Amino acid sequence: SYELSQPLLVSVALGQTATITCGGNSIGSRNVCWYQQKPGQAPVVVIYRDTNRPSGIPERFSGSNSGNTATLTISRAQAGDEADYYCQVWDSSTVVFGGGTKLTVL
Amino acid sequence: QVQLQESGPGLVRPSETLSLTCTVSGASVSSGAYYWSWIRQPPGKGLEWIGYIYYSGSTTYNPSLKSRVTLSIDTSKNQFSLKLSSATAADTAVYYCARRLANDYYFDYWGQGTLVTVSS
């Protein structure tokens, strides 16, 4: 079965750029989406189809995907960006989530 | 706007069947434009996809849960449901229902989630 790997924890200084990675075998050939989940809330998609932002998601959120790594980039990090982030792909009609990354804004 | 709402018992005894229903408003479960999914999250852990169902009743399940999971859809009530048999403590989790567009690869609407505890 297909597996995705994410770092458990990423820290970023307020106003700086955070980078969260999602590793998988040839993930660049798949559509990747990213979810933000704050405590006690349901996940919210922030990036879909590698690079697309849903309406209402700030331009500070961007995504890329190539080779064996997909990346979520959060520019000018704010305190409100502190959350868990999950990557997700489809594999043979099934859904695969990464293990999640906790983003801490210092 | 689209809303999904999970409902069902918050406590299930070990070995019994966990049953949840998702009521959808603002969209039709009988539309071929969507797939309807269940996803769960054990306390303090990550997301685990359980399965999805199409308006036709066609289903796809997580292979790790396939032997215990049944999804169904009730177009007359605009609902879809989850049954997970032989529940154990490992099934204790927040259960979410979610919608995916048929021609895309992400879940665009989620329910608020409901905590189900498996305990005697």
Describe this structure in words.
The complex is a heterodimer of chains A (106) and B (120). Chain A has 106 residues and is mostly beta strands. Helices cover 0% and strands 46% of the residues of chain A. In chain A, strands 1, 3, 4, 7, 8 and 9 form a six-stranded mixed beta sheet that branches. The mean pLDDT of chain A is 97. Helix content of chain B is 0%, strand content 52%. Chain B is built from no helices and eleven strands. Chain B has strands at 3-7, 11-12, 18-25, 34-41, 48-54, 59-61, 69-74, 79-84, 93-101, 107-110, 114-118. In chain B, strands 2, 4, 5, 6, 9, 10 and 11 form a seven-stranded mixed beta sheet that branches. In chain B, 38% of the residues are buried. The model of chain B has no long low-confidence stretch (mean pLDDT 96). The interface between A and B is medium-sized, with 24 and 20 residues.
Q: Secondary-structure blueprint of this entry?
A:
The complex is a heterodimer of chains A (106) and B (120).
Chain A: E1 9-12, E2 18-23, E3 33-37, E4 44-47, E5 61-66, E6 69-74, E7 83-91, E8 94-97, E9 101-105
Parallel strand pairs in A: 1-9
Antiparallel strand pairs in A: 2-6, 3-4, 3-7, 5-6, 7-8, 7-9
Chain B: E1 3-7, E2 11-12, E3 18-25, E4 34-41, E5 48-54, E6 59-61, E7 69-74, E8 79-84, E9 93-101, E10 107-110, E11 114-118
Parallel strand pairs in B: 2-11
Antiparallel strand pairs in B: 1-3, 3-8, 4-5, 4-9, 5-6, 7-8, 9-10, 9-11
Total number of helical segments of chain B?
0
How many helices of chain A? The count is 0
Taking pLDDT < 50 over at least 5 consecutive residues as the criterion, the unreliable ranges of chain B are none
Largest interface pair:
A-B, 24 and 20 residues
Let me know the largest β-sheet of chain A: 6 strands, mixed
**Chain oligomer state:** heterodimer
Largest sheet of chain B: 7 strands, mixed
Helix content of chain A: under 10%
SS-based class of chain B: mainly beta
Mean pLDDT of chain B: 96
Low-confidence spans of chain A: none
Write down the secondary-structure element order of chain A: EEEEEEEEE
**Basic shape of chain B:** globular
- What is the helix fraction of residues of chain B, given as a range? under 10%
Strand content of the residues of chain A, in percent? Answer: over 45%
